[in-house]
UniProtKB/TrEMBL annotation:
GO terms for biological process: defense response to virus; maintenance of CRISPR repeat elements. One of its GO terms (molecular function) is RNA endonuclease activity. The keyword Hydrolase applies. Belongs to the CRISPR-associated endoribonuclease Cas2 protein family. CRISPR (clustered regularly interspaced short palindromic repeat), is an adaptive immune system that provides protection against mobile genetic elements (viruses, transposable elements and conjugative plasmids). CRISPR clusters contain sequences complementary to antecedent mobile elements and target invading nucleic acids. CRISPR clusters are transcribed and processed into CRISPR RNA (crRNA). Functions as a ssRNA-specific endoribonuclease. Involved in the integration of spacer DNA into the CRISPR cassette. The keyword Metal-binding applies. Keywords: Antiviral defense, Endonuclease, Hydrolase, Magnesium, Metal-binding, Nuclease. It holds the Pfam family ChrB_N. It comes from Cohnella nanjingensis. Its EC number is 3.1.-.-. Homodimer, forms a heterotetramer with a Cas1 homodimer. This is CRISPR-associated endoribonuclease Cas2.
Length: 188
């Protein structure tokens, strides 16, 4: 017997313009939905997902497409386990890619530190990159309905990125602050 409630959206959209198909696909993937067949997407039944699926349904309907929205509350244990596994596989791929992104960020911090490239410009650039990582993590976390085993590792890596940027920023402040302080002292 099913432990979760699910929403199943089956849809057809006209082949042209392809932008509608792409928009629907992106929106459903952004929700964290899993395609079980072409144009058949499943997602956990939450208030937010239900609201967003209704918006997607309106887009499909207004583009001349067709939709069928099903609510599933009674799945066999095997079917539910398969669905949860599909969701977790998607999240694992996302977290692995995110961890690669964190690795690149940490290598950049290491490289700039090794080069002693302690400039305000580098701080700004790296702050922007860390901001992207934080937004990326929040998006994945929002879609991680069944707590992927990589969630904690991803959070730890993000925390490490934040700590390394703080260290780098402190080094830049000490380096540039001393230079600026000397210039100010000389001007006095």
């Amino acid at each position: 017997m099913s432990q979760h409630a699910w929403i199943v959206l089956s849809y057809k959209v006209p082949s042209e313009p392809s932008t509608v198909r792409v928009r629907i696909w992106r929106n459903l993937k952004g929700l964290g939905g899993v395609y079980i067949q072409q144009s058949v997407c499943v997602a956990p039944d939450t208030a937010e997902i239900r609201r967003k699926i209704q918006q997607i349904k309106k887009i499909i309907d207004s583009s001349g497409g067709e939709t069928l929205l099903l609510e599933a509350t009674e799945l066999s244990q095997h079917s539910e386990e398969q669905l949860v596994q599909l969701f977790n596989q998607q999240r694992t791929k996302e977290y692995e890619e995110f961890l690669d992104g964190c690795g690149l960020f940490l290598k950049e911090m290491e490289s700039e530190t090794r080069k002693r490239n302690f400039t305000f410009h580098e701080v700004e650039e790296n702050e922007a990159d860390l901001g992207k990582l934080k937004r990326w993590f929040r998006k994945i976390l929002k879609r991680d309905f069944f707590q992927s085993s990589l969630e904690n590792q991803a959070k730890s890596q993000l925390d490490l990125c934040e700590a390394k940027l703080a260290e780098f920023t402190d080094q830049v402040y000490r380096s540039e602050g001393q230079k600026e302080g000397k210039v100010l002292d000389e001007e006095s």
